[in-house]
């Protein structure tokens, strides 16, 4: 007897809510009636009772925000929602809407939102206290205005926030505005606001405040005031950070005071701060610009020997200047010293030194450097690698060149027909027919020989070659 199988009923499709009154079309945009009608159908279908701030937030966050055609209606729906019976926005809807408007650069609507918040405080707080999220909401909005260079809107939001919150604004808000003044080249306004922060609001500046002002003084050719601000910072018990020292070191180089810049870097180390890659870049660039490239080498080697040179530091700019000014062997020394100290050079830095050594005809040094690079899994680009192989083969060291090829193959090199032809011609010049024929057959297997005539030409050249005398080999071997 067959068992009856209960068939599950299909889920019913959502029906539009008839209890929801509908908002009127927005007046600040060109919206077609048909498009807006589709949006209203979408709202009726997906936003069902109860109509609360929590349900509105879910609808905006998970439905409207991700809809390609309706996402721009979020603020319109947000401003219409309070017209519903017993509906009142919470700090969660305020915060989400503020972040969304800031992220999508709708600053005029963000201003309207802040005015709405000021007129309709969050219901979560008692009458004598403000909502704890009011400050973060306004701070994020002030940052958005400052990034868009809408400084007057940022100041308006700041003054509105000061009236709404309990206590003092935090120092981060002041830093946003001071930095905005500096970016606008209004240093005097930045300093006035800095004084306003301390004496009117009784807010203590932090390291970011001082860094902004020190950088501003330095960029405005007022480095003596930057140093004064640095001393004031220490007097107020605010510890500098690596950005502070980097700014001062750069300012000293700008003032053509390289010895004091080096002294500042050493003072930084004595105070227990670690050098950053930016610090080293500033020192190298500043010294090279002053024509003190050898002093820059000495300083970096000193840092490396003392174990304070950052592992991620790239010495490429220094090596490029050294090789450009003819100090190729000094550049090679720097590479090995830093390498042995745990600061491996970049591939580009090594290529600069390889090219410099090739220009001097230092084939042996080139071979040793390339071998060291391969040990660290650094493979030259194919053009440079082929040039290196040609130099080694021209020095009648084809076995050494072929060994480098095999080592590079194991590290990921993809040779071309030129790579093999250089080696074949090298063995042809040394009269080593057997090894040359092995390479020709390998070329054939890899598809580097297009036709039989090319194959026969290479084999014929190898069959006619003669091994040089022992005296000739020794002559070219050194």
From TrEMBL:
<feature type="repeat" description="PPR">
    <location>
        <begin position="276"/>
        <end position="310"/>
    </location>
</feature>
<comment type="similarity">
    <text>Belongs to the PPR family. P subfamily.</text>
</comment>
<protein>
    <recommendedName>
        <fullName>Pentatricopeptide repeat-containing protein</fullName>
    </recommendedName>
</protein>
<dbReference type="Pfam" id="PF01535">
    <property type="entry name" value="PPR"/>
</dbReference>
<feature type="region of interest" description="Disordered">
    <location>
        <begin position="1"/>
        <end position="29"/>
    </location>
</feature>
<keyword id="KW-0677">Repeat</keyword>
<feature type="compositionally biased region" description="Basic residues">
    <location>
        <begin position="1"/>
        <end position="11"/>
    </location>
</feature>
<dbReference type="InterPro" id="IPR011990">
    <property type="entry name" value="TPR-like_helical_dom_sf"/>
</dbReference>
<dbReference type="InterPro" id="IPR002885">
    <property type="entry name" value="PPR_rpt"/>
</dbReference>
<feature type="repeat" description="PPR">
    <location>
        <begin position="241"/>
        <end position="275"/>
    </location>
</feature>
<feature type="repeat" description="PPR">
    <location>
        <begin position="416"/>
        <end position="450"/>
    </location>
</feature>
<feature type="repeat" description="PPR">
    <location>
        <begin position="381"/>
        <end position="415"/>
    </location>
</feature>
<dbReference type="Pfam" id="PF13041">
    <property type="entry name" value="PPR_2"/>
</dbReference>
<feature type="repeat" description="PPR">
    <location>
        <begin position="206"/>
        <end position="240"/>
    </location>
</feature>
């Amino acid at each position: 007897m067959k068992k009856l199988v209960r068939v599950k009923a299909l889920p019913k499709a959502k029906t539009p809510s008839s209890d929801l009154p509908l908002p009127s079309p927005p007046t600040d945009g060109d919206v077609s009636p048909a498009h807006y009608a589709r949006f209203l159908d979408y709202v009726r279908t997906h936003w069902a009772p109860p109509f609360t701030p929590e349900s509105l937030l879910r609808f905006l966050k998970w439905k409207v925000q991700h809809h390609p055609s309706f996402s721009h209606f979020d603020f319109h729906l947000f401003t219409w929602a309070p017209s519903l019976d017993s509906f009142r926005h919470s700090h969660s809807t305020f915060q989400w809407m503020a972040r969304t408007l800031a992220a999508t650069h709708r600053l005029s609507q963000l201003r309207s939102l802040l005015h709405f918040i000021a007129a309709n405080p969050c219901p979560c707080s008692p009458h004598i206290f403000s909502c704890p999220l009011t400050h973060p909401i306004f701070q994020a909005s002030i940052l958005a205005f400052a990034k868009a260079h809408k400084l007057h809107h940022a100041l308006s939001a700041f003054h509105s926030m000061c009236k709404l919150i309990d206590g003092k604004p935090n120092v981060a808000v002041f830093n946003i505005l001071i930095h905005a003044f500096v970016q606008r080249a209004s240093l005097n306004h930045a300093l006035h606001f800095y004084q306003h922060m301390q004496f009117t609001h009784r807010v203590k500046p932090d390291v970011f405040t001082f860094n902004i002002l020190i950088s501003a003084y330095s960029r405005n050719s007022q480095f003596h005031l930057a140093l004064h601000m640095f001393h004031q910072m220490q007097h107020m018990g605010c510890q500098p950070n690596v950005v502070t020292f980097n700014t001062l070191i750069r300012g000293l180089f700008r003032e053509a005071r390289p010895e004091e810049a080096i002294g500042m870097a050493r003072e930084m180390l004595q105070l227990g701060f670690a050098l950053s890659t930016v610090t080293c870049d500033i020192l190298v660039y500043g010294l090279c610009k002053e024509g003190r490239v050898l002093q820059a080498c000495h300083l970096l080697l000193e840092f490396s020997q003392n174990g304070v040179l950052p592992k991620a530091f790239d010495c490429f700019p220094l090596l490029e200047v050294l090789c450009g000014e003819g100090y190729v062997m000094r550049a090679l020394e720097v590479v090995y010293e830093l390498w042995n100290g745990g600061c491996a050079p970049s591939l580009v830095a090594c290529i600069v030194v390889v090219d410099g050594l090739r220009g001097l005809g230092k084939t042996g040094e080139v071979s040793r450097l390339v071998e060291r690079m391969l040990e660290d899994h650094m493979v030259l680009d194919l053009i440079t690698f082929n040039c290196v192989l040609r130099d080694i083969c021209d020095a009648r060291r084809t076995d050494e060149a072929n060994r480098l090829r095999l080592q590079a193959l194991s590290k990921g090199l993809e040779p071309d027909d030129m790579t093999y032809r250089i080696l074949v011609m090298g063995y042809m010049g040394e009269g080593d027919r057997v090894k040359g024929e092995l390479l020709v057959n390998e070329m054939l297997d890899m598809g580097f020989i297009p036709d039989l005539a090319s194959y026969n030409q290479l084999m014929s050249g190898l069959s006619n070659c003669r091994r040089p005398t022992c005296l000739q080999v020794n002559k070219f071997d050194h």
